[in-house]
Design a protein that fits this description.
The complex is a heterodimer. Chain A is an all-alpha fold. Chain A has four helices and no strands. Chain B is 33% helix and 19% strand. In chain B, helix 3 packs parallel to helix 6 and helix 7 packs across helix 13. Chain B starts with a strand and ends with a strand. Classes of the chains: A mainly alpha, B alpha/beta. Chain A: Keywords: Cytoplasm, Fatty acid biosynthesis, Fatty acid metabolism, Lipid biosynthesis, Lipid metabolism, Phosphopantetheine, Phosphoprotein.
Chain lengths: 80, 405
């Protein structure tokens, strides 16, 4: 999957779970500060992302995923 | 000198309508909110009827997925009551605003749905919103959050007396000076096979599956149990001097409340209804109203064979033989934790408009129904003071007295 495809997939999840406008989802955006995703919704995003991208994202990894770009890098590496 | 408390806002979503006006119109027209359960899961149940919401709750999609249905209906009703009160523009200090909203059963449908997910897909798939969705204080908390209430958010739980007890505790909150305005009421939404099977196993529910609209028939000889309903009723209670100072519309005065407990049985009411009688007597004393002045009673009467007649006998003893009695549960079904709140709204509107809503399906009054019940048709009359009764599993008795403001 390309980085753009992963961003698009995350945007879909973020819209469903937290009502984020897909146009706002770009790599430099912070989940909590820019996109207003609270901690419980972040848990939902992670679980949905695991399912969508067929990867495992351990809980202690989640705190390192500050931006959409961080998540894309992690997913992309995990898929490889 | 007791602080005077008035009702300045009403909100409801019920099996009869999505708001207070449509619910009240349906009550006066004597419409039943009971229908057949057509869901696939209902086929195996001995009870296949219920009073389902007339209008699905309108909550933003993202917020709705974090809220149990009982929380959603409470918020819908609270929004209506708050708008009705006009307090949004009154610059109320949030530290003077409280919430007292309870539920009989809480987020049982969330619990059961998440248990299905746990069994099918494992613990990691269980929603992180599960706990706030199923906790019984969730409806009150969501309402407190929406209106920034900071005087205290409370959730009394007393089964089918919850709605009335919540209003009684709200009265106490204002009288004791802890708040100037309280959003109060009850909510319930548990139309799901498990609660239905549980109540049905108690033999508490009507099995008149072929005639849903005739199933809830309080005081009638042919009654065979209650009909489960869902919905919410919310009132805005306010210190009377502040309400008058801001020129608020005042529906009625909440003059007094009485709460007692039977100490008798976990589900059976005390046969002589002594606990209920004490609640009504306490409410009269609290309100400074004589039994002779109570011309209308919105009875608890749920349409069960054991419950309805002792209430009539009790009313005759404590109030007298003059009140015009009704059971709006004949139309709404039994809203459990919301019942006392929706029935308080019906009582307030009866006073406000001078009309008692009917008890439908009362074709053949049972032995012992020796008070004037407003059977079939609404009754127009002056109502200076009225009583609303609610009793709950656990031996809870709550009586509220409303008077013309």
């Amino acid at each position: 999957m390309t980085r753009d495809e992963i961003v698009a997939g995350l945007a879909e999840i973020l819209e469903e779970v937290a009502g984020v406008n897909p146009d706002d989802v770009t790599e430099e955006k912070s989940f909590t500060e820019d996109l207003d995703v609270d901690s419980l919704s972040m848990v939902e995003v992670v679980v949905a992302a695991e399912e969508k991208f067929g990867v495992k994202i351990p809980d202690d990894e989640v705190q390192n995923l500050k931006t959409v770009g961080d998540a894309v890098s992690y997913i992309s590496k995990a898929q490889a | 000198m007791t602080v005077e408390v008035v009702v300045t806002g009403l909100g409801a979503t019920t099996p009869l309508g999505g708001d207070v006006a449509s619910t009240w119109d349906a009550m006066l027209a004597g419409r039943s909110g009971v229908s057949a359960l057509t869901q696939e899961w209902a086929a195996q149940l001995p009870v296949r009827i219920a009073a389902q919401l007339a209008v699905e709750p309108t909550i933003d999609r993202v917020q709705a997925r974090r809220m149990d249905r009982s929380e959603q209906v409470a918020l819908v009703a609270a929004r209506e009551a708050w708008a009705d009160s006009g307090l949004a523009d009154a610059n109320l200090d949030p530290e003077r605003l409280g919430v007292v909203v309870g539920t009989g059963i809480g987020g049982a449908t969330t619990l059961l749905a998440q248990d299905d997910i746990l069994e099918a897909s494992g613990p990691r798939r269980v929603s992180p919103h599960t706990v706030p969705m199923l906790m019984p204080n969730g409806p009150a908390a969501w309402i407190g959050l929406e209106f920034k209430a900071r005087a205290g958010v409370h959730s009394p739980t007393s089964a089918c007396a919850t709605g009335s007890e919540s209003i009684a505790w709200a009265l106490d909150m204002i009288r004791s000076g802890r708040a100037d305005v309280v959003i109060a009421g009850g909510t319930e939404s548990v139309i799901h096979p498990l609660p239905i099977a549980g109540f049905a196993s108690m033999r508490a529910m009507s099995t008149r599956n072929d005639e849903p609209e005739k199933a809830s028939r309080p005081f009638d000889r042919g009654r065979d149990g209650f009909v489960l309903g869902e919905g919410s009723g919310i009132v805005v209670l306010e210190r009377a001097d502040l309400a008058r100072a801001r020129g608020a519309k005042v529906y009625a005065r909440l003059a007094g409340a009485g709460m007692t407990s039977d100490g008798f049985d976990i589900v059976q009411p005390e046969p002589s209804h002594a606990g209920a009688a004490r609640a009504v007597a306490k409410a009269l004393k609290d309100a400074g109203v004589d039994g002779a002045e109570i011309v209308h009673v919105n009875a608890h009467a749920t349409s069960t064979p054991v419950g309805d007649i002792p209430e009539i006998t009790m009313l005759r003893t404590v109030i007298g033989d003059h009140p015009v009695v009704t059971s709006t549960k004949s139309m709404t079904g039994h809203l459990l934790g919301a019942a006392g709140a929706v029935e308080s709204i019906a009582t307030v509107l009866a006073i406000h408009h001078g009309v008692v809503p009917p008890t439908i399906n009362l074709d053949d009054p049972d032995d012992g129904v020796d008070l004037d019940v407003a059977a079939h048709k609404a009754r127009h009359m002056e109502i200076p003071a009225a009583l609303n009764n609610s009793f709950g599993f656990g031996g809870h008795n709550a009586a509220l007295i409303f008077t013309r403001a």
